[in-house]
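tokens incoming
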């Protein structure tokens, strides 16, 4: 299974009055992880958008396991959980520097035409990208 890693230095502005990372910041970090995965595979979200497509989040699920704090370095691990004709599910772990899992998450996306928001298959837009996602999606044992 192909896993991409993105390190994030936790900024003070990302914490709350308790000194821990505010929950909604993890969603931003998941986006950074997803973008890193796409980049690591040699594809470009920017080019996809320039070609007239966007990939909105249809569903997101996050489980908070262990608090993270200002000054720590978080690692966002991202992979393709599943990839079908219209839907892609990304899997994530956000880790402390010692490997402790802070967050687990999944996000489900579709690809749509930017102008109409009509769903379109990644296979029709970019067959090479589609094939790569099918190749690296997580396989259940």
């Amino acid at each position: 299974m192909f896993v991409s890693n993105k390190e994030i230095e936790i900024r003070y502005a990302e914490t709350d009055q308790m000194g821990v990372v505010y929950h909604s910041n993890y969603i931003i970090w998941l986006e950074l992880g997803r973008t890193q995965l796409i980049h690591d595979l040699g594809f470009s979200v920017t080019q996809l958008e320039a070609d007239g497509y966007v990939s909105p989040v249809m569903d997101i699920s996050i489980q908070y396991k262990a608090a993270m704090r200002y000054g720590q370095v978080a690692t966002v691990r991202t992979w393709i959980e599943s990839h079908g004709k219209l839907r892609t599910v990304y899997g994530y772990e956000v880790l402390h520097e010692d490997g402790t899992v802070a967050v687990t998450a999944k996000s489900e996306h579709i690809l749509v035409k930017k102008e109409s928001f009509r769903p379109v298959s990644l296979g029709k837009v970019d067959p090479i990208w589609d094939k790569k996602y099918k190749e690296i999606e997580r396989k259940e044992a």
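note: The domain at 4-136 is CATH 3.10.129.10 (Thiol Ester Dehydrase; Chain A).
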